[in-house]
Amino acid sequence: MKQKFIDPKKDNQISDNESTLENETWGGNQGPQENGSGPEMNELQEEIVKLQDQLQEKDAVVEEYLSMLQQLQAEFQNYKKRVERERSAVIEQANGLVGLAALYRSGVGSLSVSQKRLMNQLARPRNGAAHQGQPPSPGETSAALRTARTLVEETTPLCFP
């Protein structure tokens, strides 16, 4: 007499000579006990519960790591945006100082800061940052700030004859 098993996914009868998980697990025609409450069945159910608990714990850890990763990605994106805004502001300020010097020279006269010094200490680092993505070194930054201060002090107040 052939046993029949029900495949819950297909809702149809499958004979024991076809390959199914139940047949492979229970060794073909042997099958579980009729009432499904044998010691092997209890052990398997306990193992399933343990594995489900372990899976839920692992899922919780994965969710925690995913949350941390998403937060770090958002922080990094914000950092990149902030650096780009700051870089743009520095570039605009350098452009403004070079323009201020040109305006002052055209209207008032000479400055103690030469055009060559202005280009070397303000424009060159600015162009490196703007076009090549090279931030100025600390020395270049200090020299640019000294030049900018001198330029601003000499042109304040900006007066034309």
Structure write-up:
The protein has 161 residues and is mainly alpha-helical. It has one domain. Helix content is 69%, strand content 5%. The chain is built from four helices and two strands, in the order E-E-H-H-H-H. Strands 1-2 form a two-stranded antiparallel sheet. The longest helix has 69 residues. The termini are far apart. About 14% of the residues have low confidence.
Shape: rod-shaped
Query: How many E-type strands?
Result: 2
From the alpha-carbon coordinates, what is the Rg to the nearest angstrom?
39 Å
Order of helices and strands: EEHHHH
* Helix content, binned percent: 55-70%
Question: How many discrete domains?
Answer: 1
Largest sheet, if any? 2 strands, antiparallel
Number of helices: 4
Global structural class:
mainly alpha
C-alpha end-to-end distance: 117 Å
Average pLDDT works out at 75
**How much beta, percentage-wise?**
under 5%
Strand order of the largest sheet: 1-2
Uncertain stretches: 12-33
Helices and strands in order, then pairings?
Elements: E1 4-7, E2 12-15, H1 21-26, H2 39-107, H3 115-132, H4 138-155
Antiparallel strand pairs: 1-2
Helix pairs in contact: 2-3, 2-4, 3-4
Short description:
It is built from 4 helices and 2 strands, in the order ββαααα. Mean pLDDT is 75; it is low at 12-33.
Observed structural traits:
161 residues, mainly alpha, two-stranded antiparallel sheet, 2 strands, rod-shaped
